[in-house]
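Explain this one:

_____
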Amino acid sequence: MSCNGKRGEIIATLGGREWRMCLTLGALAELEETLDEPDLVALAERFERGRMSARELVAIIGAGMRGAGHDIGNDEVAALAAEKGVRDYVDTAVRLLAAAFPQDGE
C-alpha cells in the first residue's frame, strides 16, 4: 500500500491490517469538536505538550482513518490490536499529527 505524504497520508498497521490515514480538514474539525478545542492553533498546542491520553489516541487515529475514507467508529478503533501495544498507537498518532502540522522545511 502506498501513500501520498504531500497530502498528509500515512500508513499504519493496526488489528493485523494496513490502514491509510489522513487528517483532512474535516478530520481536524472532528478532532476540535471531540476534544473540545476552539480552533486549529489550540489543537496543535494541545499536542505540542507531548502528552496524550488513550482517549486522544483513539480520537486521532479514528479521525485519520475516517479522513482517508474508512467507515470505522472510535469504538472499533479502540478495539484494534497493535503489535507493539501502546507504542504503535502513539507512533501512529504522532506520525498523523506530524503529517498534518509539518514543521518548516518538511
